[in-house]
Amino acid sequence: MDRIALTAGALYAIVLLRAGGTFAVGWLAGAGARRSRFAGRISSAKFRRAERAIQRWGAPVVAVSFLTVGFQTAANFLAGSMRMPLPRYLPALFVGGAAWALIYATAGLGMLELLQRLFAERTALGVAAVAVLLLAVCGVVVYRRRRADPSSGDTVAEES
Fold it and tell me: Terminal CA-to-CA distance of the chain, rounded, Å?
């Protein structure tokens, strides 16, 4: 249990620094945009309404974003760039970051123990499991790239 608490504490510190840093970078980017040539677009009534909505209702989105993969950074950056007030942002950061740290500490340590046991007791099976996992990851990457660029497979067929 001490390992889980120590890992969760370290992950919590990491997520607070990373997400808080992303919020700060978003805040600075938003401030810079407000002083740039885009200031006219940013000051429109529609943009101000969106900004007020994020400032008021964005905290639950920030907290839940920690339970997603790939949306967390965008949510924190957007909260910063749209100037979500710190009294609304910080509780969302603390709650969401704690959930993220606990999930990754428990599931992450569980997976590491499973892999350690698998390699210690049945090395061939452990190597096979890691190979299958790597092949699956590579397959997903290739599939997404081909799906994003539909012309990659059609060029040879059209030239013939």
Answer: 64
Q: What is the mean pLDDT of each run of 10 residues along the chain (160 residues)?
A: 87 95 94 80 74 81 86 89 90 95 89 84 86 91 85 53
CB-CB contact of 79 with 23 (8 Å)? yes
pTM for this predicted structure: 0.69
What is the token pair recorded at 15?
Answer: 């997520």
The residues, any chain, with a CB within 8 Å of residue 139's CB and separated by 6 or more, are none
Query: What's the half-sphere exposure (Cβ side, CA atoms, 13 Å) at 40?
Result: 1
| Closest C-alpha among 30, 54, 56 to residue 43 | 30
The Cα 101–Cα 88 span in angstroms is: 20
